[in-house]
Amino acid sequence: MRIDRPGIYVHIPFCLRKCPYCDFVSYPLEPGDAGGLQAYVDALVQEVSLRKDWLEAVELMPEAFFSLYIGGGTPSLLEANHIARILESVISCFPLKTGAEITIEVNPGTSSLEELRTWRRLGVNRLSIGAQSFDDTFLARLGRIHTAREVYQMVEWARRAGFINVSLDLMLGLPGQSLENWQMTLTEAVGLRPRHLSCYELTVEESTPYCALQAQGRLQLPPEDEVIAMLQWTHQYLTDSGYQHYEISNYALPGYESRHNRIYWENRWYIGLGAAAFSYWDGRRWGNTAGLEEYIRKLAAGILPEAYSERLDQKGQLGETIMLGLRLREGVSIPELEARFGLSVWELWEEEITGLMETGLLELSQGRLRLTERGLLLANQVQAAFL
User: Fold this and answer.
1) Helix, strand, coil shares of the chain as percentages rounded to 5?
2) 50, 89 in Cβ contact below 8 A?
3) Rounded to an integer, what distance in angstroms lies between the CA atom of residue 220 and that of residue 138?
4) pLDDT per residue over 217-239, tens digit each?
5) I need a surface site. Which of 29, 51, 103, 201 has the fewest CB within 10 A?
6) Phi then psi for 359, rounded to 5 degrees?
7) So what's the pLDDT on residue 33?
8) How far apart, in whole angstroms, are the C-alpha atoms of residue 43 and residue 51?
9) 219 Cβ contact list (under 8 Å, min separation 6)
10) What is the reported pLDDT for 31?
């Protein structure tokens, strides 16, 4: 079986402290807890080996993996020797394509120039920097541990370490943020000329401190029309600056789209490693246990730490592929999807597609279905039609 462009994700679930908007699985790292980090890395290396054995047993080991992404949490909290061990383990067990994209997420203020140089020597070729803002006031509101000055420093160090492919994560729609505030942050970011920019609108997730503040009426978010103005200005400014708007929240200079994230948006196969990591492989989705103690204990016993699993039928896989693919500005090719899944898109969703086209949220051109400019602002509503 030909497995098209698969990827590997490695989750490092540690942060110095939890940001009030974050609902990702992560744990505050206790000062001096080298033993906890070592135990987690030991378990992670064991999972890599067990997952390799599983892929070979089910005869679904691909010829090569297309990308490797180490995310979190804050992976840059790990020592260089921990990163080296993880990379060596993954590369020895899973075949990586020549020139594969290898990304590490890094937060300003958590790594040194020498550590970045070490990562580069180990084969990491892309950095995703969690900048979020270039305004210290908003960084403080977000609970970030770094300052704007440290963002500039991290970008400078990345280049001195030999990284060409640098991405910046930014957030808009923040409490108290105006269009002018956002324009300042994005202008500063573009001035650094990163190859890639992710511009995410703040979403208030359940069970976060921000959600509690909102329920108490103490979280003053910008009005909807202000956020829409931010999104529209972002598109215009970044495309005028030479960036391609290739996904709802993502922009890249030509040739620098995130290969790993495209795996998710195209609903390709990927293996997730680490506590709380999810995988999607051969129509099955599974998630690892989120608890660190349970994750470490199971792997010490030689047991894969799966806590959840479901198998999707062909219609479910096709629906998810449409839903995710519509995030891409190019949309989805109906002929390609029908060839891939052996089902008729029109027979399954003609009413939904027709209705969304009539309301101006979807458009069809040369067999490709994609969001309109208005549809970009209501993407969740469109995507829900295919669940």
Assistant:
1) 45, 20, 35
2) no
3) 13
4) 999 999 999 999 999 999 999 99
5) 201
6) -90, 5
7) 66
8) 12
9) 175, 204, 210, 213
10) 61
Domain 7-265 in CATH 3.50.50.60: no
The residue whose two tokens read 């030999």 is 162
By CB atoms closer than 10 A (0-12, 13-18, 19+), residue 160 is exposed
Name 366's Cβ contacts closer than 8 Å, sequence gap at least 6.
Answer: none
pLDDT computed for residue 32 by the predictor? 60
CA distance 254 to 314: 34
CA distance 64 to 52: 13
Amino acid at 214: Q
Distance separating alpha carbons of residues 287 and 271, to the nearest angstrom: 10
Start-end of H helices in the chain: 34-57, 80-93, 113-121, 136-141, 148-160, 179-191, 209-215, 224-240, 259-265, 292-300, 314-325, 334-341, 345-358, 373-377, 379-384
Q: What is the mean pLDDT of residues 333-354?
A: 96
Count of residues making up the chain:
387
> With b meaning 16 or more CB within 10 Å and e meaning fewer, what string describes 65-77?
bbbbbbbbbbbbb
Token reading at 339: 């060839």
Identify the band that residue 2 occupies on the pLDDT scale cut at 50, 70 and 90: confident
Q: Is the preceding omega at residue 73 within 30 degrees of 0, hence cis? A: yes
Query: 315-384 has which fold?
Result: Arc Repressor Mutant, subunit A (1.10.10)
Q: Which residues of the chain form CATH 3.20.20.70?
A: 7-265
Q: Beta strand pairing status for 332-333 and 368-371?
A: antiparallel
| Three-class SS state of 167 | strand
pLDDT in tens, 146-180: 999 999 999 999 999 999 999 999 999 999 999 99
Q: Could you give the CA distance from residue 370 to residue 357 in angstroms, rounded to a whole number?
A: 10
Answer yes or no: are the C-beta atoms of 385 and 378 closer than 8 Å. no
Pick from 122, 86, 130: nearest CA to 106 = 130
